[in-house]
């Protein structure tokens, strides 16, 4: 079953040139094997601004995940893990 966290789960990310190369989730380091897709959301400036750089990644242990870097707050979050 796909897991979705609307506000994301805070994670530690190792990045190179602003792209994730590894992250820590469930006490395990997950190496990013491939960035499948990426996009930027910059919206709702009239209310609470959202500015995020999303990455759909495949890990070395075959997880497909969506991570995002909150460009306003500066942290990384895990938003979705596909099964």
Please describe the topology of this protein.
Blueprint: E1 3-16, E2 19-25, E3 28-43, E4 50-59, E5 64-70, E6 76-82
Antiparallel strand pairs: 1-2, 1-6, 2-3, 3-4, 4-5, 5-6
Structure description:
This protein is mainly beta. It has one domain (3-82). Helices cover 0% and strands 73% of the residues. It has a six-stranded antiparallel beta barrel with strand order 1-2-3-4-5-6. The chain is globular, with a radius of gyration of 12 Å. The termini are close together.
State the main characteristics.
73% strand, mainly beta, 0% helix, six-stranded antiparallel β-barrel, 83 residues
Q: What strand line-up does the widest sheet have?
A: 1-2-3-4-5-6
Straight-line distance between termini = 6 Å
The pLDDT mean sits at 94
Number of strands: 6
Instruction: Estimate the strand proportion.
Output: over 45%
Question: How many domains would you count in the coordinates?
Answer: 1
- Helicity level, as a percent range? under 10%
Structural class: mainly beta
Please describe the biggest sheet, giving its number of strands, its sense, and whether it closes into a barrel. 6 strands, antiparallel, barrel
Q: How many separate helices?
A: 0
Q: How are helices and strands ordered from N to C?
A: EEEEEE
The coarse overall form would be globular
Low-confidence stretches: none
Q: Calculate Rg over CA atoms.
A: 12 Å
